[in-house]
Design a protein that fits this description.
Length: 232
């Protein structure tokens, strides 16, 4: 049996590629975006009352990880990518029906746009539904998960002085908290856990319209090398 679903909107996100997106929402509060609603949800009626809500659940499609054949076991990056686990025990992107869910902060509500932050969503993500976060039902004080018991320990992030100047200039131009965004995302250590980087090896990712390059001067320390306009 199959069912059809269609997006209620699409996310314009600070994240232009999958690499360096935090693995869950709220790990980077400076990660911002806009959820643009599509017809018939873009006339204002569908969001009436939402201004009384601080956070929403987004149900979305992992549109850049869709696969025809469902996986039963996956290798979560959090476990180093070398241990497999039942797909339903993980939040892996490769999953039946490709559906993701994130609680995000609702910054502002407009007729056809929701301004959101703390996101872990790629640019262009199709959103299937939006639901208000309901603290009395959604906070479970006794909940436990020994696979992912706490947020990963953040890695210290240092700046090469010219890179910090570049980031501040781009932040002013974009009117976005770019320095914080870079620090919060890199502190999650986006590198695949199985890689042991040498100091010479450089990594890069695009945030908004800038390319950020960094390296690991020693294990457990990240240094941002440059923040330059992304190639078109
Ligand atoms: N919070 C969601 C959940 O639990 O369903 C997502 C968790 S998933 C582990 C987070 C990762 O999904 C991000 O690090 C990013 O690389 C990836 N991602 C985000 N949006 C995506 C999209 N539209 N298509 C494919 N991958 C995406």
């Amino acid at each position: 049996m199959t069912y059809n679903v269609s997006p209620v909107g699409f996310v314009h996100s600070c994240f232009k590629e999958k690499f360096a997106i935090p693995r869950q929402p709220h790990l980077a509060p400076a990660a911002r975006g806009v959820l643009e609603l599509v017809a018939p949800f873009d006339q204002g009626d569908a969001v009436q009352g939402l201004e009384q809500v601080s956070h929403v659940w987004l149900l979305f499609l992992f549109h850049q990880a869709l696969e025809n054949k469902p996986r039963l076991k996956v290798r979560p990056p959090r476990l180093g990518g070398n241990k497999s686990m039942g797909v339903f025990a993980t939040r892996a992107t490769h999953r039946p029906n490709g559906i993701g869910q994130s609680v995000v902060k609702l910054e502002r509500v407009e007729t056809a746009r929701l301004w959101i932050s703390g996101i872990d969503l790629l640019d262009g993500t199709p959103v299937l539904d939006i639901k208000p976060y309901v603290p009395y039902a959604d906070i479970i004080g006794t909940a436990s998960n020994s696979i992912a018991s706490a947020a990963p320990e953040p890695v210290p992030v240092q700046w090469a002085p010219p890179a910090l100047h570049q980031a501040r200039d781009h932040a002013m131009r974009l009117q976005e908290p770019l320095v914080e965004l870079i620090e919060q995302c890199l502190a999650q250590d986006p590198r695949p856990a199985y890689q042991v980087p040498t100091a010479e090896r450089e990594y890069g990712a695009q945030f908004w319209d800038v390319d950020v390059r960094w390296h690991y001067p020693r294990p457990g320390l990240i240094r941002v090398l440059e923040v330059i306009p992304a190639k078109q």
